[in-house]
């Protein structure tokens, strides 16, 4: 027996030893699989370090079952560690395990852009040691080099987008807005919106530049013009959506003079007024009726959140009422009605707790009558909240829903209310509605025609409600819109060179008899549609049966993609009309990122660096799906 133990096992090596009744293998044979980071090798078993489960090992067995145990079976492993292990098994993230310093540098730069990480982080004394613990060959760059790399990523991305824009065969709609930083510097964001050949809506920030005070019409027009001409969009401008202020109106007058000869119909429909801004003005006027009650709620919310002790006292009350504690209460931005609505909803949710808290505080709460009025107002404004959400979307078309939302608001304002507060509220809001939307925007009205569930009948229906069905005014308005639609269609038809949509499907058959049958059917179909073929593609579309789909998630772009061969000219129109933005929210959303990038710790960042970071992050976000190196490779200047 002792003789047997003294012999060398060629599979195990000389470093084996006996521990108790089990054979323990030494470390002379190096295990390459990362699965061994989670197992101890004991005899002919691999023992999980987490759950102590024993799995068989040996020649020809491999480690697949060990990896499967860590990825799916082990119940003791930390979930974060399991995720890291699973990611380590993927070979689609990076092409090889060989260290590529240039690729690492580019990826690190893109990480700083996408996660909005301050450049100072890379100069932390822990940064390079932490990175080198993952990869000893890694060498960190300095803050200025990182900044330069970010600008180079931006320039590389600009080249990629320029190629995409030059190949674009549709028009482009724009949104723009101005933002003031924490150090009182003005920045203008210009965003391009377009629908590509596959009927996907794109949103790309093309400019984020500092603009000098005063923000006059000429200054605004100059900044927008520069962005349009820098990206060679001057022949592709369809609409420009701006906030409703006098400076923007003056800016559009200047732009009309510059772009009129390059735009469709001399740019007569180019200026779009931000629907969300109009809604804000409208609701703010109405909410003035409850200004005193809203002020009391606002002051109470501010008082409670102004100190930790007061918030703790409020949470003590919530605890006695078996309600969850709050880290803070919503305080509105007085210039945005929807944030005031959120504050009111929060106050109504905790109304009883607020009343109990007010008993021992110097702050006055609304009276019972005022609370009741606030409740009615909150319900009344839900229609306007839905419209704001619809107008504010920029990842899916909103222009075709414009007329529906406008007439929903109109019917809400025209209702007869017995509550005197709602009477006053609706009357005040109706004045602003009549100023801006008594006559809805013409091009946005036509956009609803490209909803195959409504078509032109929706225009007729809405105008019948507004002016009385069958009246001379109603007929005149409908005929005006029909003539406008025909004018647009004729222009697109002349540019596409397609006069009618007479489809001639390919006949794919497996034998001669099938071919004869199919050809006979095509002849029969042709004879029964002779009158249809004499009509225009527009006539055919309007007279074809409407799509029956009440789902709010109906994808209008996918419908046009599938029917683009049947209606080629209208499909081209749809790409332009459905890309129109009803609001400037797409540009405003960039200001949230800008406020983080230019906080008090980074307020001295150069304007060109800010533009590089804002634009690049936006371009990264437009790439769908999980990380794929090939998709981001064009943005990498070093690798």
If you compute it from the alpha carbons, what radius of gyration comes out, rounded to the nearest whole angstrom? 33 Å
**Helical content, roughly?**
40-55%
Strands of the widest sheet, in order across it, are 8-7-6-9-10
User: How many beta-strand elements?
Assistant: 10
Please work out how many helical segments DSSP would assign: 28
Main sheet summary: 5 strands, mixed
Structural classification = alpha+beta
Distance between the termini: 62 Å
- What portion of the residues fall into strands of 2 or more residues? 5-15%
Categorize the overall geometry: globular
The averaged pLDDT comes out at 86
Regions with pLDDT < 50 over 5+ consecutive residues?
1-28, 498-510
Map the helices and strands.
Elements: H1 2-6, E1 17-19, E2 22-24, E3 39-42, E4 45-48, E5 54-56, H2 64-73, H3 79-88, H4 101-114, H5 127-134, H6 143-167, E6 172-180, E7 186-195, E8 201-211, H7 217-230, E9 237-242, H8 246-259, E10 271-273, H9 275-287, H10 291-305, H11 308-320, H12 337-349, H13 351-358, H14 368-380, H15 382-392, H16 402-414, H17 420-437, H18 442-447, H19 455-467, H20 472-496, H21 512-528, H22 530-534, H23 537-543, H24 556-562, H25 568-577, H26 585-597, H27 607-621, H28 629-632
Parallel strand pairs: 6-9, 9-10
Antiparallel strand pairs: 1-2, 3-4, 4-5, 6-7, 7-8
